[in-house]
Every structure is written in structure tokens, then in C-alpha cells.
Amino acid sequence: MALIVQKFGGSSVADAARVMNVARIVTDTYKAGNDVVVVVSAQGDTTDDLIEKAKEINLNPAKREMDQLLAAGEQISISLLAMAIEKLGFPVISLLGWQAGFNTNSVYGAARIKNIKTNRLNAEISKHNIVVVAGFQGINRYDDLTTLGRGGSDTSAVAIAAALHADKCQIFTDVEGVYTADPRKIPGAKKLNEITYDEMLELATLGAQVLNNRSVEMAKKYSVELEVLSSLNPVPGTIVKEKVKMEKMLIRGVTKDADVALISVVGLDDNPGVAFKVFAKLAQKNINVDIILQSVGRNGTKDLTFTVSKENGPLAVSLLEELSVIDGKKISCKTNVAKVSVVGAGMESHPGTASKMFEALYAQNINIQMISTSEIKISVIIDAEEADRAVAAVHNAFIPQD
Amino acid sequence: MALIVQKFGGSSVADAARVMNVARIVTDTYKAGNDVVVVVSAQGDTTDDLIEKAKEINLNPAKREMDQLLAAGEQISISLLAMAIEKLGFPVISLLGWQAGFNTNSVYGAARIKNIKTNRLNAEISKHNIVVVAGFQGINRYDDLTTLGRGGSDTSAVAIAAALHADKCQIFTDVEGVYTADPRKIPGAKKLNEITYDEMLELATLGAQVLNNRSVEMAKKYSVELEVLSSLNPVPGTIVKEKVKMEKMLIRGVTKDADVALISVVGLDDNPGVAFKVFAKLAQKNINVDIILQSVGRNGTKDLTFTVSKENGPLAVSLLEELSVIDGKKISCKTNVAKVSVVGAGMESHPGTASKMFEALYAQNINIQMISTSEIKISVIIDAEEADRAVAAVHNAFIPQD
Fold this sequence. Notes:
Two copies of one chain form a homodimer. By secondary structure, chain A is an alpha/beta fold. The two termini of chain A are 38 Å apart. In chain A, strands 3-6-2-1-9-11-12-10 form an eight-stranded mixed beta sheet, sandwiched between helices. Chain A has helices spanning 16-31, 46-57, 63-87, 119-126, 152-163, 197-208, 213-221, 274-284, 313-321, 353-363, 387-398; strands at residues 3-8, 35-40, 92-95, 102-104, 113-116, 130-134, 137-139, 145-147, 168-173, 194-196, 226-230, 238-241, 253-269, 292-296, 301-308, 330-343, 368-374, 377-383. The first copy, chain A, is globular and about 75 Å long. Chains A and B meet through helix 1, helix 2 and helix 3 of A and helix 1, helix 2 and helix 3 of B.
């Protein structure tokens, strides 16, 4: 007998029929002799609808009140799922975030879990109840409700699995697992049986959008074995863990991220502290910088190039214009670019990975504007229009086709 | 400076425009130098919509889960109202039932308030916050959410007013106060300036549906001065208190209740314990009996007649059929009847009230099937089709027309 945590997203519980479907998955797991804790998000578009209601009244409401409002979404979905499980004849209880012991800090809208007081959870499991927990939410030291931010339900599920030392944490989605590329766009994309935390982190950051990044970080930290699988099709999914068996594939996936703005400053004085001043300014405004490249320019100057999200592009440029070290230098911001990356722990011991990727792009006549590498990842910035073609070319070069 | 509790029902906060309207009423009261605690119900049809969602999944769900579900309704309305008050530039905080200290027993769906721990409420008032509290809900000793049942928000408001020793508890509705009869049906119906708790209780029981009965009982018990007034039209409403100035009117109101089933058993043996056995049986099934009449029948038998709600009529009959004392006796159940009542503390000292009422009915040729009186109320059971005509006739006989 194992203790299994199962997480279902909003689309998995969007209507009565889907709630019943989730109830069947949960009770099948329970019938097999397992203890089950289920974490659910708000139904379908509930969160967006609540945000819309708020905006009609106040475009910039206090974040505390926004969290009070949004937390109602999971309250509805957990009680409905509990009713569905009861309907199938199984013992069940629903718990709100605070009832399940989720203590967080007070950063409304993006709270961090401080700890989970597991008394109630353990008591309900001891009574052989299936426990349905509201994801995404907790309570702070003032007894006020908080939310963990978008994707927070994944984090809730992993946190419970860690706190209860669960045997497995299953994240149910509308895809069957983690693929080597977006299967809707790349016909030859393959589902991975296993993937490491680090690889998953790189894939998540790069826009694969299967798992929330904070949840993967937490799973890695507490060694929680994750499985990503489909709530609609009952086949084995992708296991995410520390070490995986070597497979034939050199890389785990090819991803595209179109949410990139490429900012360049040309001809900066070659003095110490320039990079510090630039990025400290951006950090003050919470602008996340992804790739950074500094290169030697003409006549003893240097050029600085970096990427931020498209949304942050204009703000980043105006912040740079305020800096004295930038004064009078040419700043450009390109948004018609995309980032294409290959990820795989295997590339550490295969020096040819980068050249193989570049060869595939060259064969398609795709120009590379910027390159960045880490131990398990190679990213290139290319023209946005060529991104899909680039992903297909690189994927076909690395992933053996049947 | 006074402390004022204001309660707004679901229709008063049904959409963004109405929420803003409520925010203006609340902030006007605050601007006038008062501390304000606001109690709100769920928006418009939210509660019905949530019940509908539940029924799609489970026709008979656990009441605990139903309360967990329904409590989300006020959670949404309090945070939206807080955002509206913030938008108008006033300090505000919303509190869920448990955050506001509402401790109840564990009768899910119809919980009773045990006490209100006022620490948080007092702390927020001390900070000069307008406090928006979720009506209808509380928490039991197991940290599970409970609801007080329909109309529970009135009770929440009165309970807060009592616990905080508020100067006044204003109940905002979609009518301007308590009328001598339903103003939509009786053109000469007059708004009352004042009414006693006891009169209000009789009117509420009789179907006036302005105030929830439990809230009036609680207001009487803790001497909370109530005011019933309109959220749409800012004119003085009706004050409900212990003693009121005598007005010219002998009675306070005429009401009709069509939800009546009249059950008769003819020819019962005239032995002790018959009435006990009948009504104990009904009480076991929580069937509320309103008027009871026992009269001498033929040949040393007795006849028993009583009223229950229409819904409970068939069940009451089948329960009676199980009783040995009833065995073989004729049981009839009439549902084409209505109860028309006059209420007024003044009638205690005016013996002519009953005859004046009967005279008015006689003049309309309306047959009285049953009569019941209390110190401040006279009720008659008549044919349902004649009820509206009866109300008009009795109203015109008692209420001086301009």
C-alpha cells in the first residue's frame, strides 16, 4: 500500500462530467489499496471569471482582497469533487488550503509555502478518507488567505507529497506526458518515459508549460518522484526523478519560446561596473533577464546584448536610458525573435551536440543571432518567423524517427 | 460617533453597479463619522447556481461538503464589495465568517451561532477599517465551515450587532420597510415607522418575508435596534424595537400565507394521549405544525384539525395512518386553503378586533374554515381563491386610508 498524491488542473474538472471522470481515476487508485490525497485547481475558467468580476469594480484592487476572491475558485472545485467521490461510494473529505495546514508568507498573489502542518491531513488519511485539497492557496500568520500564483496547484501537490513522504506525486494534465517537442506541431515528437529534474526545469523554463517550475524545483529538493500523465487517456506518463536510465536519445527535447525581446547596447565604455549598473537597475524593477552576452566592440568599447520577456522590453529600454553609463549610446529592442533550445543531460559528455544543432539550422538556411549554452542546454535566438521550421529541423536531427 | 452594522442581501450586490451602490451607502455612513461593519450575502443567484452545480454531480451530497461549497458565495461578494469601497478611497478589509469569529455548532446547513470571538473585528474597527463580513457562514469546533441556512445573513448581522454592542443594525432590502400589507397587492398598504419585535415575529412567521425570524428573535433577546430599509431608495425605513409609540392603527399588518395544508381526523376516541401520540409522531420527522384545533365530535368522539406546510402534507397523512389511535378513522388533507392574519400589539386591549375582522370577511361573503388567536394575532383559514380579496377587505377595515 502506497500513499499517492494526485493533482488535477482546472480543465480536468471543468464540468460535471469531467469531475466524475476525475472521481473515477481517484477512486480506482484508492480501490487498488492506496491512500490518496487529491489536489485540484479551480474549475475551467473560474479564476479568469473572478478576475473579470474584480476588474469591473476596481482595476487595481488590494492583492489581499484579490486572494480572498480567487481562493473561492478551488473551494468550489474541491467540494464538487468530494461530492462526486461520495457519489461513487467512497469515504472522502475536502479541505481548504488552510484546513490542510498550508502556511505561507504574506506575499499576496505569489505567496511561498513556509510549512504544512500535517495533523489534519494525517488524521483524515488515518480514517481512510480520500482527502481532496484546494491547490494554489494557503494562509498567512495573520489568518488571511493567500494564493501561490498561477500554476501554484502543482506546487501545492508537490509540497503535500514532500510533507507526507508520499510514494509518488502524479500531475494529471491534458497531454500524455513530456514530449521531445510540441506534438501538435512536430509529428515525430516522442513521449519520454523518464526525465531528470534538471532537464525538466530547463524544459519548463523554455516554455514547455507542462509543469510549473517551482514545483519541479521543490520536487528535486525533497526528492519527490513526479509523474506527468493524462486525465483523459489512462496510459503511463513521464516520470520525473533525480537519475534516469540512459536512453538512445542524446537530448530530451526541443522547445520554442516566442516571448522574447532582444535588447542591445552598442559601443559602451570598457570600464568596470557597466554590467553591474545595467542589471542592478533592471533587477530593482523585478525584470527577469534570461540570456546575457557581452562582446568586444570597436575601438575599445564593448557591446551588451540580453533578452527579457516581450512585456518587459519597453520598460527595460526606458530604464537603460536613465543610466549615465548608457548616455548617448544606441539601444535597440527587437521583438521579432524567438528562442529555440535543445535540452538533455546526455550532452554533457557529447561535445558534438552544439555543432549538430548549428548544422541542422544551416541546412535550413536559418541565421543564428545569439547563442547561449549551459551544461544541459543549448539555446539560439533566431528570427521569429523561422522558429517553427527550426524546431522541426533540430528535432529531426536529434530524435531517431521510427 | 456610533457603531452601525449594515446588512445587504444578494439582490443588493447582484452585479458590479449594485456593488458600487452598496459601497456608496456604506462609505456615506462612514463619512458621517460612524464605525461601520457590513454583512453581505452571496451575489444574486450565486447560491442557487452552486446548488445546481452540486445537483448535477450528486443529488444528495454530504451536508458538510454542501456548506464548504456554498460558503464560497459570500467569499466572492465580500471581496468584491471591499474592492468597491477601496475604489472609493476608504480603508476596508473583508472577513470570512471564521475570520470574523463566528463559532457555530455542527448542524451543517442550519448551524446555530454559539459565540462570536470579536478580537479580529475589534482590531479592524480600531484601525478605522470598514469591515465587510461574510454573512450566512461560520466554523465549527472541528475547523469545518458551516452555514446558517437560508436567511442566515440577517442573523449574522444581528449577532455581530449584539456582540459588538452596536448602536443600530440596518437591514437593507428591496422594499422601503415593513408594510401593513403587501404593497404590490394592496394599494392602500402603509409603511410602518416602528414595530415591536413581537409584532415583527408574527408578521415574519406569517409570510411577510422581510426579515428572517431567527434574526428578530435574536434582536429581541439582545435588545438590538433593527431598521429595515431600501438599498435603492434612501428614505427612512421601519424601526424594530421593544416598545414603540402608540399610533392610530390598531393593527400593524394583514398577511396571507398560501403555503398551508389543512389536515383533519374525524371521530377519534375521546381518550387521554391521543393528541400527544399524533404530534409526537410528526415532531419525530421534524414536521412543523402551525395551528391546532381540537373539538368535540359526535357520540363522545373528538375531531382533530391542524395545519402544516403544503410540502409536508402527504408525509403527515402517511405518518398518521401508521398510528393505532387513528386506525380506520377518516383523514382528510386540503391544500386549496390559505391563512389570513392580522397582527398588532394594540389588539390586546381592544376586544373588538376579532369581530371587526370577521365582519369584514362576512361582508365579502367569505367563509371561515378555522380560527386561531394569540395575544397579538388573529388568523383564519379560508378558501385559497378568496385570500387576496380577504386581505384587501380586512386591511381596509383596519387601516385608515388617506
